[in-house]
Amino acid sequence: MISPAQYLLNVSLITVCFQSVLYGMCVVLFSTSTYLHLLRHCRWLKGPTSRKLIPVEGTTWTLIFIGTILIFICSTAVWITLVFRLVQAFYLYKGGAAPVEFLADFSQTSNIVRTTFDLGTVIIGDAMITYRLWVVWNYNRRVIIFPCLSIVALITCTIGIITEFTQWNPEWDIFSSAAGRWIISDLCFTFCTNTYSTAMISYRIWKINRLVKQYGGGSLTSVMATMIESAAVYSTWSLLFLIVYTCHSTLQFFMVDTIGHVCAATALLINVRVGLGWAQTSVDPTTLVSQLTATTAQEEHELRVGVEHVHVVGYPNEDSESVEPGNRSTKSMTR
């Protein structure tokens, strides 16, 4: 039977391998997402001696793009610190004679840094999906009250976890300690934020899609599928982590080290799928609104606003631009 110490060592080695695969996915997704974003918003201007990339459609630095950069930076920092911790455990700490002792000491500076960036990735991911929810619902502040409060609570839990780790005693049990209670709360809040936001975005798109199809427009089902499929990955992972942790399973050491990269990959995957055009639709809101002769003014406004803002699944249109009525649908849906 494997001892707890040997199990912790084995999990740490396996985690680094799995983390490296996830980080590799994040690198590919971030590179593709950035390329597609710049391709959409910029073009190369040929000069006499060189070429320069200039924006051609509003600002390049949208909030989603900034969030994408931040979440990739945090993901990179997590992977670097994780690898560095292995180097410390096997070579630097006591000459590599006590790797298990080092890995079990959560108060080590490298672990504090890794935890900070790991939980920072989760916070940024929750903020990004909350922002998408806000834009999809036509900047309705009431809709984002719950996720905003949940994010504030998540930040509080993050501070609590980091504080407990700085005071950690290797003799403590991670499951029964104060840090364990902070971790459970952290998982609950991030799960609720993602589940609520995904459900509300999907409901909004489904409601608009029903009106669009009713008046002869194209289907927005692909938009809803993009959101649900991508967000379900992280929601499922965080739920599994919560179950594993509450069951006091040592598998939580693997889950806690990978949740940040799963969150980052999920956010980047949404951007890439939309950038590749998987969420495009041929619905023209101008044509549809003109056909709403039998609907109420509220329904007409909801259809116009909803279809124009459903593009936020990818890169939202944060710049004010002049768009011809006949081309408005194509531009907004491909953000």
How does the SSE layout of this entry go?
Blueprint: H1 4-41, E1 42-46, E2 51-55, H2 63-92, H3 99-104, H4 109-136, H5 145-166, H6 178-214, H7 221-246, H8 252-275, H9 285-290, H10 297-309, H11 328-333
Antiparallel strand pairs: 1-2
Kindly describe this structure:
With about 325 residues, the chain is an all-alpha fold. The protein has 11 helices and 2 strands. The protein has a two-stranded antiparallel ribbon with strand order 1-2. Strand 1 and strand 2 form a beta hairpin. Helix 4 runs parallel beside helix 6, helix 5 packs antiparallel against helix 6 and helix 6 packs across helix 10. The chain is globular, with a radius of gyration of 23 Å. The C terminus is likely disordered.
Oligomer: single chain
How much is the average pLDDT? Answer: 76
Shape descriptor: globular
Main pleated sheet: 2 strands, antiparallel
In N-to-C order, the SSE pattern is HEEHHHHHHHHHH
Gyration radius (Cα, Å) is 23 Å
Structural class: mainly alpha
Unreliable runs: 278-300, 310-335
DSSP summary, beta strand count? 2
> Can you list the strand order of the major beta sheet?
1-2
Note the gap between the termini: 54 Å
Helical content, roughly? over 70%
- The number of helices is 11
Strand content: under 5%
